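We read letters as residues; the fold follows as tokens. Both lines appear below.
***
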Amino acid sequence: MQRYRIQAHYLLHDCFLHWPAQLPQVINRLRTANLPVALVHGVQDRLCPADNARMLRHHLPASRLALVPHAGHDPWHPRMVQCWQSALQSVLRDGDFAGWEDGTP
């Protein structure tokens, strides 16, 4: 129940972001922060469409995107966890995600 209260609070306040006006600023900050970015998204996510992850990937050319089959919105789905672990191992080993084979099972 607590999880859904928190989610409702964020959604009520548009996740504390002013979309779409603020989107270019957010993307620009991510681009100029010079941080490695890995996007991991469940293909069967019915709450957040994969097109959003694809759009973000398009605007962050240095990022990497993994679309995890048979996973939805749950970050603790075993396939999502496996993909995150693969991404983290890559960034720990190389300092970025350039050599990351998206790790999707």
Q: What stands out?
A: The radius of gyration is 15 Å. DSSP finds four helices and two strands in the chain. Residues 75 and 81 are 7 Å apart (CA to CA). The longest strand covers residues 38-42.
